[in-house]
Predict the structure of Threonine synthase.
Amino acid sequence: MKYISTRGSAPALNFEEVLLTGLASDGGLYVPEVLPRFTHEEIASWAGLSYTDLAFNVMFPFVEGSIPEPDFREMLRDTYEEAFAHKAVAPLTQLDRNEWVMELFHGPTLAFKDFALQLLGRLLDYVLEKRKEHVVILGATSGDTGSAAIEGCRRCKNVDIFILHPHNRVSDVQRKQMTTIKGDNIHNLAVEGNFDDCQQMVKESFGDQSFLEGKSRLVAVNSINWARIMAQIVYYFHASLALGGPHRSVSFSVPTGNFGDIFAGYLARNMGLPINQLIVATNKNDILHRFISENKYSPEVLHHTLSPSMDIMVSSNFERLLFDLYGRDGKALAALMESFKSDASVSIDDYRWKAARTLFDSFTVDDEKTCETIKTVFDESEELLDPHTAIGVESARQCRRDASVPMVTLATAHPVKFPEAVEKSGAGVTPELPHHLADLFDREESYTVIENSLGAVQGYVKTHGKHNKAV
């Protein structure tokens, strides 16, 4: 399979190349040239498969030609049968009639990012060992990506890992999960800024890697990396098959800030999975909601909320959807993205926006309603939600088009990662760390507070880590 840039000018790459590239050379994001599509009969035949076997069927077309079938199967077994604490991997819990949450927090770092990043580490190890190449992972996190990336990639022999997080703006559990993992190739940088600052510095570094002086190259672990999106497609098929798909449609509500997780659902639908509705669930940082509801894409002041993983104002993966809405015309999309730089507010042609609205709805939930939803759901079912999942549940209840269609909210994180929101909800319960993290707050931390400056970050990356000495 070949991958092309959303902006039309960068060369097409195979999977191995796109895994190591991140942003395309023209500033765009890579997407498959042609999306694989499965028939109703094929999808129906997957009912009852293990998560590992289902993952192989869904993902192998994306890696075929770069990774042999036996090697890919082994990576998937190592990921989903060894790294996850629940045998179902992504179990479904019922809240009400035709209302479900899919628990995506049974991986080692208790967040949905594990589904992609545990696999990404194994993919990188395989490809880099084959190429005898060394790389630098540079990523930004609003809370969960960082720990999942470090956990997934810390054993990679040919990788240095540098993760930026906004100083004092992630939860204590999120920070501890990053900063207590030891390794001479692991570097946690607490940036004196917000997540968008961190993300922008990562993007600029990928655009100009000269600061590495040719000693290595950058690899993305943020959701701009195609492998992240690819792995997330699988659990949409998993939920659908568990609830009677493909013989019936299923709807999904997805807490999202960067648009990657819900874009995976959009791709699942385009690959043949019957999906009735996709709901974009946001907090007060509602740029995606304003686009879906009003056709207005414009950053505003960033708000710090009880759902910090969605405290994002510029959604990296949204460009991938716009590429399809513009008929996969890279030149037209490049012009639109260029206008976004100068015009702070962008709208698209009405007919393109209406095409998106046939599938997508959206809703925004403030902190007060988030806490109220946590308590309501706990009172109704004794299911304790984290604040992001609560936003997803409330959005689903507000936007649901058809009560006869099963509604699945993606439970993106374990509630123990966000004790402040659980306490403020008044649910009267304190979530506990699972056994493998029971001593988390006793572990020694290691991180560096660094100024909100591209030069400071690039200078640190340049002078630290094995890449500076080994290449």
Notes: Residues 44 and 315 are 34 Å apart (CA to CA). The first strand starts at residue 3 and ends at 5. The mean pLDDT is 94.
